[in-house]
Amino acid sequence: MAEPLRVLSIDGGGIRGIIPATVLADLELRAGRPVAELFDLVAGTSTGGILALGLTAPGDGGSPGWAAQDLVDLYVREGPRIFKRSVFDRIRSVEGALDEKYPSDGLVGVLHESFGELRLREALADVLVTAYDTVSRTPFFFRSSRARGDAAQDWFLRDAAHATSAAPSYFEPVSLDGFSLVDGGVFAANPAMCALAEVLRVREPHDVLLVSLGTGQQTRPLPWKKVRNWGALEWARPIIDILLDGQSDTVDFQARQVLEGSYWRIQTELLRASDDLDNASEENLRALQEEGHALVASEAETLAMLAEALKA
Length: 312
Description:
Layout lengths: L4 E6 L7 H14 L3 H4 L2 E5 L1 H10 L11 H15 L4 H7 L11 H11 L10 E8 L4 E6 H4 L9 H8 L9 E3 L2 E5 L1 H4 L3 H8 L8 E6 L10 H4 L4 H28 L3 E4 L15 H17 L1 H12 L1
Parallel strand pairs: 1-2, 1-7, 2-3, 7-8
Antiparallel strand pairs: 3-4, 3-6, 5-6
């Protein structure tokens, strides 16, 4: 009997990517192997797409260039640089109402420094990253499996990471060879079903092991009295959060029905940290790390079992 195809899926969530990265750091420690060796396919959206690309990117000698803990450290170190804006930016954009909230310089700089000239075909495990093309009005997928056979699909990792994380109203869209790409979270905040569709072309559901990681469940209520008179401007940013949260939960339900006992979802409620995608304050970065460590502690038994299953 063939070994199950091992799939990892990582949600979108901006700076909250610290949480799944912390979980993966623990999993790597338990298994004694990097993510690129534990999984056959790593899928991600937005911040999850950056993690997917980082964890499968080669370093010196063909070994992974990043451990999961390295990426936690990267988020903590570079988060304030990515989500930085001047007083002029705040005035120019009217706090993000009339233009993107942040200039892309910080994000682009971090991605260039992190990925350099690496391309999709070089990924150490198959990787699938989501984006959305505003020209054709269709989903767009960066796929290493296609990149290895088609040079036109062999994008720079830095460009894939930029496109998947260009959240509307936060960053401007990415122009890439005629495509106008924004964050894949507009249709797949939780890319688990996209990943499953990719592997079910070659495997039956009972031959798939899927691990899905969230970036923290939003708990901030939006009472009726607060939202009843909101117009387009008031709804603009909250609706993004609602779509991300609702899509993620829906995909979790779908994956459970399809895979039953071979599906694991590791997620937490945000009790310490902000649910904002862009809160890179020192206090919140510390709180996000605490959320990640608390999740690892609460899911210790599951992570131990997964480490053994993935090593087998």
